[in-house]
Amino acid sequence: MVLAELGSKITNALKKLNKADVVNEEVLKACLNEIVTALLQADVNVHQVKKLRDNITMQFKLQEEEGADLRNLIKRAVVEELSRMLETEKKPYQPKKGKSNVIMFVGLQGSGKTTTCTKYAYYYHKKGWRTSLVCADTFRAGAFDQLKQNATKVRIPFYGSYTETDPVAIAEEGVRQFKKEGFEMIIVDTSGRHKQESELFDEMKQVAEAIKPDEIIFVMDSSIGQACYDQALAFRKAVDVGSVIITKLDGHAKGGGALSAVTATESPIIFIGTGEHFDDFEEFEAKSFIKRLLGLGDIEKIVNIVKEAVPLEDQPKLLEKISSGNFTLRDMQSQYKNILKIGSFSQFLSFLPGVGTSLMGKMNEKESIARVKKFICIMDSMTNEELDGIKPLNPSRILRIAKGSGALVQEVNVMLEEYKRLKTMIEKMGKSKLAKGNDLANLARNPGQVMGKLKNIVDPRMLQQLGGMDNLMNMMKEVGKMEGMGDMANMLKMFGKK
Ligand code: GDP
Ligand code: MG
């Protein structure tokens, strides 16, 4: 991710504060110069950058005399000012569960609208919303096929037409049908043109008039940097844009400029696209984003993600199983499913302090996720008795499971090996104090001992990505202070050694 470069440049500038013997105006100036250069290179508007520099300098001068901790003051001021650069007062529309939310997507051709519609749909689908997609793009050849393919991949119902040429008619009919069927999310993809043309804007207005969307989301390609400002204003003038999604932040040096320029138009950014895959999609919240960019982590966010993925009531049951050493294939299956619910693991990791966006290897994650998916698929082909360990898995059963899941016998065996390894490990842990009560409460109390154990469990490559053992330990201490984190250690184990 190119934004990570911006993050590490700013982090490096801040690190120099630690090296200075005394923090004075000169040191601040040198640090700010580096930050300013990095921001300008990311195409952030010159006036915004100047404002940031002035505000930080002012805060510094105000408190310099009071003998405050100036290093921390500067760091905090940088985080604050960068966040402010990406914050809007206007709040985006909050979809409501249990009713039909009609969301219309607009944007230029090639900006990533159709891809983003699918990502957005998939995001809500994974959260358990009844989600649907409507293709109202009749301008681009093959538009319906593209949406159909995307929707099929993520298993979301779709509506479109090969014969109808009026986008208004399609949008109206699609929304009508999905409303009737009680869908909670009805996402309407519209056509784009290569540039802003009056025809495009007329069509947008007509579609909006016909379907009366609850929200209009404007999709914009980040590669144009601060030129996003004019484009965002032009679209807002034409239709009532409520919020913005910025795409392709994985591939362009101008991402920072795009984000700050859009915010300057007072349109809230709600998600960012960071790749071509449907889960290369991140919720956007200014402060959290900046903290992660600078590797400061966002512990609250982690707690929320884990809480959402692992229902609290399931946690004691799991701990009980662990302490009794009775860990079945079914338990492994449900743990794996929890991991998938978290979605992107590298994104999850970026919320940890000291990890940031730069340290994450996406390839490694994709492999891990694919492996987890394969294992789940294999376990889905097992009978209840096999999952609960009542019927032993003999060669003929293994052959049947392999055939049923489209896997190789070898792959089923690898999965069973993994299960055995996990079971042995968990039985050992069950006998130790680790599994009693809250794992993480123990971690916080006695990290050294627990970490010694974890070291044998966690994949060394993963450990490296997490910034080494010391960092992991600090992280765990932080996390251990929070409540409701009972399953965090388990999550790490699931991605354990191969
Ligand atoms: P539309 O014309 O606005 O509907 O744009 P599409 O959804 O068809 O996307 C245009 C191209 O951009 C496709 O090749 C997508 O795979 C690609 N794309 C969309 N979003 C992203 C993103 O966040 N990152 C990257 N790298 N590519 C993207
Ligand atoms: Mg499209």
In short:
The protein is of the alpha/beta class and about 500 residues long.
Indicate the radius of gyration in whole angstroms.
Answer: 25 Å
Helix content bin: 55-70%
The main sheet comes to: 8 strands, mixed
Shape, please?
flat
Distance between the termini: 27 Å
Report what the structure shows.
This protein has 498 residues and is α/β, with parallel strands linked by helices. The chain is 59% helix and 8% strand. The chain contains 24 helices and eight strands. The protein has helices at residues 2-19, 25-41, 46-64, 70-85, 113-126, 143-153, 167-180, 198-211, 228-238, 255-264, 286-293, 299-309, 314-324, 329-342, 345-349, 362-380, 384-387, 395-405, 409-431, 439-445, 447-457, 460-465, 468-481, 488-494, and strands spanning 101-106, 131-136, 158-159, 185-190, 215-221, 243-247, 269-273, 281-283. It has an eight-stranded mixed β-sheet, with helices on both faces. Helix 9 (228-238) links the parallel strand 5 and strand 6. Helix 1 packs antiparallel against helix 2 and helix 18 crosses helix 19. The longest helix has 23 residues, at 409-431. The two termini are 27 Å apart. It binds guanosine-5'-diphosphate (GDP) and magnesium ion. The site of magnesium ion has 5 residues, from helix 5.
